[in-house]
Amino acid sequence: MEVAPLETATPEQAAPVLENLAAPEPANAEEGIPLDNAHFPDVAFLNSIRKVDADGNGVLSRAECEAVTRLDIRNKGITSLEGIGCFTRLTYLNCIGNSLVSL
């Protein structure tokens, strides 16, 4: 499937790209999303969001994910935002200066 550049993509063309960004659901969603390479394959992105884990247990709870409304992850060497879909209330994202090819 050919994907149009982000600024000219129709919703139908953009949908396949966006659906790949969601974090895989853990076996029990109430347990949260582990901060690991299975859920956040890009190490630079994973390291950038570790601060979101307020209790430091290595797992993002539903409350921790929902608390994130802004992410400022500029110039971190990130190539993929796979897993960002767990931040369901995200309204602001600054990812300038990374090597992203899709959003």
UniProtKB/TrEMBL annotation:
This is EF-hand domain-containing protein. It comes from the Bacteria. InterPro entries: LRR_dom_sf.
